[in-house]
């Protein structure tokens, strides 16, 4: 048997994933047999119109939900066999999320917002602080570390939220419509932050979007329609956002 080199091994492997909601005549088939492979370090956009099953797929990838059928392998481990507790552990260690709405806690400054999940994960305070500052720096928002969410623009707050997601050094970063609540300029800065992050850390990035402009910032676009993959292509003219990340930015 050939030995597979680590860097060639798929990090995420979905085989024939189906997810339906409800029963009987009211059953909604949100995913109808999705199979795909994503390698470590890829930056992928998962694109499709509203209702195509993007969030359903993301919830399965993020171990928030289970498929009705099919298998999901992450780093060679079968996720469908894990119990809920094991899934939660895996979620905490390996997978990070950024959502559309920016869910920073209003009473905590940027630094504390980034540190909080690591506090829950019982990471010792010195390591926590170090990881939080590194993440804020990577996203260009370290100068804002003492600011409260009300003192930040939408784009700045979203970058703090991304810093919070990546501070624990996850393998996979999942983002569901991360620029959906932002104007175009702030959205571009956030996409640039994802690109810089991806370049500098090698984390696998999966961005869910209905917007082709957002998807063009990834290396690969997987298109979903009516619960099925209808297209999967490398991006020919990838849009790159060049930005001086260290400035803190005003958008
Ligand atoms: N919890 C749920 N219960 C019932 N139907 C759902 C649920 N979540 C999603 N759906 C349905 O599944 C389909 C896919 O939804 P979703 O995965 O949210 O798509 P997208 O994120 O692409 O908009 C839609 O028809 C939606 O109405
Ligand atoms: Mg959705």
TrEMBL record:
The keyword Zinc does not apply. Residues 12-251 form the ABC transporter domain. PROSITE patterns: ABC_TRANSPORTER_1, ABC_TRANSPORTER_2. The keyword Translocase does not apply. This is Macrolide ABC transporter ATP-binding protein. One of its GO terms (cellular component) is membrane protein complex. One of its GO terms (molecular function) is transmembrane transporter activity. Keywords: ATP-binding, Nucleotide-binding, Transport.
């Amino acid at each position: 048997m050939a030995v597979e080199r680590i860097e060639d091994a798929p990090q995420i492997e979905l085989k024939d994933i189906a997810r339906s909601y409800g029963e009987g005549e009211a059953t909604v088939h949100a995913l109808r047999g999705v199979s795909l492979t994503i390698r470590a370090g890829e930056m992928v956009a998962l694109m499709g119109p509203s209702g195509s099953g993007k969030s359903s797929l993301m919830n399965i990838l993020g171990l928030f939900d289970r498929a009705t059928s099919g298998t999901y392998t992450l780093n060679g481990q079968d996720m469908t066999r894990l119990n809920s507790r094991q899934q939660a552990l895996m979620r905490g260690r390996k997978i990070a999320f950024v959502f559309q709405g920016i869910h920073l806690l209003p009473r905590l400054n940027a630094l504390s917002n980034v540190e909080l999940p690591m506090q829950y994960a019982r990471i010792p305070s010195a390591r926590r602080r170090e990881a939080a500052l590194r993440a804020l720096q990577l996203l260009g928002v370290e100068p804002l570390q003492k600011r409260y969410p009300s003192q930040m623009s939408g784009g700045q707050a979203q970058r703090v939220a991304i810093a919070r997601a990546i501070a624990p050094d996850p393998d996979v970063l999942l983002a569901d419509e991360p620029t959906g609540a932002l104007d175009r300029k702030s959205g571009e800065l956030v996409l640039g932050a994802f690109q810089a992050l991806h370049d500098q850390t090698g984390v696998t990035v999966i961005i869910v979007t209905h917007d082709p402009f957002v998807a063009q910032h990834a290396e690969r676009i997987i298109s979903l329609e009516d619960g099925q993959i209808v297209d999967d292509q490398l991006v020919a003219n990838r849009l790159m956002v060049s930005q001086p990340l260290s400035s803190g930015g005003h958008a």
